[in-house]
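R.M. (postdoc): so does anyone remember the format we settled on? I'll just put the structure tokens first.
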């Protein structure tokens, strides 16, 4: 941990970074996102098993961008998010410095998108045994049973949009739920509006989701949104090839097409 604190202090003192986006101690013994701008405050930074949130969600926030060049504590989810954002022209080369805490206490510093690409490992989603069992059970259901399963799950949605707020890929300046002329998504939390919101968001993330699980962690009623995204990502990979967050230049599935695309997905 001292290695991370030392690296953050050096960046802030040298002016190479204006803010370090990392983790600090949270309530009930947990961890919370922490923005450090003062070199004397780097002692508040922590990094351990409690630090699971995808901090990349803050990179495009106007309030954070106005502070100046950021450094960010880079988990695999953060690194993949940076690459995906770069492929969508939201992050440029050398816009952000990634700090990778290592097992020996040291910190690896990545300054270019190429270096970040080299540090990204095979993107296998990390699921708990319970989540994997649930995913397997969903896969074993018939189409009609899967539809009923997700209808029941979405019926519990409060329309709080915590999933949107936690997702690094939800950066539209105006979300579809905020459009009222015409109104595409009903405002109340009822079956039609809930289904419309979650299906639109799932398709918006198709080919873009890095499977960080933030949507499910943020959901106050524990809807397993990450499992829905996982199913869609698997389908996209099988039909179109490739996975999100591995390259700063790749196009995602629903942003492009080629003449040799398979058409089995529409049958």
């Amino acid at each position: 941990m001292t290695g991370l604190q030392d690296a953050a202090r050096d960046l802030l003192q040298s002016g190479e970074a204006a803010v370090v986006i990392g983790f600090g101690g949270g309530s009930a013994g947990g961890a919370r996102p922490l923005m450090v701008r003062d070199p004397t405050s780097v002692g508040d930074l922590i990094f351990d098993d409690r630090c699971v949130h995808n901090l990349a969600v803050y990179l495009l926030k106007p309030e954070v961008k106005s502070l100046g060049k950021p450094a960010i504590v880079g988990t695999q989810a953060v690194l993949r998010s940076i690459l995906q954002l770069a492929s969508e022209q939201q992050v440029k080369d050398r816009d952000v410095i990634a700090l990778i805490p290592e097992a020996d206490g040291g910190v690896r510093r990545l300054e270019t998108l190429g270096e970040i690409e080299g540090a990204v490992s095979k993107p296998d989603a990390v699921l708990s045994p319970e989540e994997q069992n649930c995913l397997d059970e969903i896969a074993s259901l018939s189409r009609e049973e899967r539809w009923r399963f997700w209808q029941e799950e979405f019926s519990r949605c409060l329309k709080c949009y915590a999933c949107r707020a936690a997702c690094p890929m939800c950066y539209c300046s105006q979300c579809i739920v905020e459009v009222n002329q015409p109104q595409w998504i009903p405002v109340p939390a009822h079956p039609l509006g809930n289904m419309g919101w979650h299906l639109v968001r799932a398709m918006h993330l198709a080919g873009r989701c890095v499977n960080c699980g933030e949507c499910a962690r943020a959901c106050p009623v524990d809807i397993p949104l990450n499992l829905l995204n996982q199913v869609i990502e698997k389908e996209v990979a099988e039909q179109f090839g490739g996975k999100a967050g591995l390259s700063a230049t790749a196009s995602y599935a629903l942003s492009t097409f080629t003449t040799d695309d398979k058409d089995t997905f529409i049958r």
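R.M.: ...and that's the designed sequence above, right after the tokens. Also worth knowing: Residues 114 and 248 are 8 Å apart (CA to CA). The chain has a mean pLDDT of 90.
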